[in-house]
Amino acid sequence: MICIRDNGIGIDPKHHDRIFLMFKRLHRRGEYPGTGIGLAVCKKIVERHGGRMWVEPAPGRGTSFYISLPAGGGELQ
Q1: pTM higher than 0.85 for the full model?
Q2: Nearest 5°: phi and psi at 73?
Q3: Domain for residue 60, yes or no?
């Protein structure tokens, strides 16, 4: 398992599913940079390799993203 942590604004738990959808931003374009595709692409790659990606936020204290991949690299689907 891999854990990537940031020290950003955090993500409210009610937005867990939305952050992994293509072009679904949580804030208006002028508030924070980004296109809304980064996490969606990461999750798609991880799942394509038989893995799983999820988030465990701590609003106001950052976010932890977890990636779990099968031993041996998994099979491409």
Answers
A1: no
A2: 90, -15
A3: no
